[in-house]
Amino acid sequence: MDYHSFLRSSTVFGACSLLGALVLSAGGCSSTQTAASNDSQASQPASEATSEDTTEAPMVTARPKWAIDHDAFKDFGYRWDWSGFPPLQHNAEIIHTTAYHDVIIMQGSGATLSVLDANTGKVRWSKQVDRPTTAFFESVRFGETLYVASETDLYELNLKNGNTLDRDSLTSIVSTRPVIVDNIAIFGTTAGELFGFQMDQDFKLWSYQFDGPIHTPPTVLDDEFVAAISDGGDLRTIRVKSAESGVTMRIAGGTTTNILNDGFSIYVGSTDQSIYSFDVEDGKRYWRERSSAPITIQPVLHGESLYVTTDDLGLAALDVLTGKPLWNNKAVRGWVVGLLDEDELIVWTGRELVSVDAERGDILARIKMDNVSGVRTDMFEDGNLYIIANDGRIAKFSPR
User: What's the whole-model pTM score?
Assistant: First the structure.
């Protein structure tokens, strides 16, 4: 896996292979050793959340100690709250992690899915959703229901206790996670089909053909439309309830990152070595910022800035109206996961956490993390940080 692919993988805005112990240290500072017994205590499922159809996955017993450098995180503006470990099958890996204000959802290879309490790190419930060989896309939360799809089936799970509410055959082999709008789940396929699945009646409501495979989930524009793109650059808006085509845009390549929108513009970081902005209403191209290599690290939209990483600029803040860099820093290449105290961007580079001045792009602080597979936040501004280790451990850090 190359460096850029590592950054965009979904464990980790995310989201990687998890193979070692977590050491968060900058050297010479105080640290806390977390033994396997302590991890086990923090990871036991809450008894009241256990349900009859919740199958607990076997726990991994061999867990090397790992250290958290409290001084380094204090300088960074965070404090350690807890450490946990979701149940995994033997030799399994964490594939997807999603953080919310109340729960952390962690999906492992072997078709395991675990929900951890965000306040305590305790496992609320854990189950093997299907056969261990079944691969699942990243789960999607809609209210108190969790939707998780394989290539052929869509499962609806009760977020509170893990009970399976429904399982639907999708009739097509899908290649994206679902996007949920009301009672319609929208998927893409390698055959270039975008389709809407009516979940309350369990049937395919509509289908729309694109010019090539679809590997990027659509993005919701409003209550009526989504935007979707094929690998070949066929970018369209589609009406959710009827599959009526809205506007059509064409670029020279697809994208390996999520499409973004702010209600006015659609933003795409493309494999054709460009970042684009299009008008949502008429498809007019507002701007195009070129690069010398494909855009493979997830762009992030916040306020009037689009934070991107390109081979030419490094990390850059682009003006959403013009596409021109407000600043750039060639020494930083990564994904902006959050904003602290309104003026510090928190950037995950795949090797380090870096604090960057939001107005100028200067590096303020950094923490080296060699054995970490990913970082998540539960909200962009002043959110909690969740560090995911190579062996599947997770640690929560809250703003000081």
Answer: 0.85
